[in-house]
Amino acid sequence: MQNYDLKHEVTDKYSLRGRVFNKIREDILSGKYKENDELKEIAIGEELGVSRTPVREAFRQLELEGLIQIIPNKGAYVTGITMEDVKDIYMIRSKLEGLCAAWACEHITEQQIEEMEENIYLAKFHAERGHFDQMSELDSRFHEVMYEACNSKMLEHLLKDFHQYVQRVRKRTLSTIDRSLASNNEHSKILEAIKARNPEEAERLATVHIHNAYKNMVKNGLKEAYNE
Amino acid sequence: MQNYDLKHEVTDKYSLRGRVFNKIREDILSGKYKENDELKEIAIGEELGVSRTPVREAFRQLELEGLIQIIPNKGAYVTGITMEDVKDIYMIRSKLEGLCAAWACEHITEQQIEEMEENIYLAKFHAERGHFDQMSELDSRFHEVMYEACNSKMLEHLLKDFHQYVQRVRKRTLSTIDRSLASNNEHSKILEAIKARNPEEAERLATVHIHNAYKNMVKNGLKEAYNE
DNA sequence: CGTTGCATTATTGTATACAATCATACACAG
DNA sequence: CTGTGTATGATTGTATACAATAATGCAACG
Question: Is the pTM above the cut of 0.85?
Answer without folding.
Answer: no
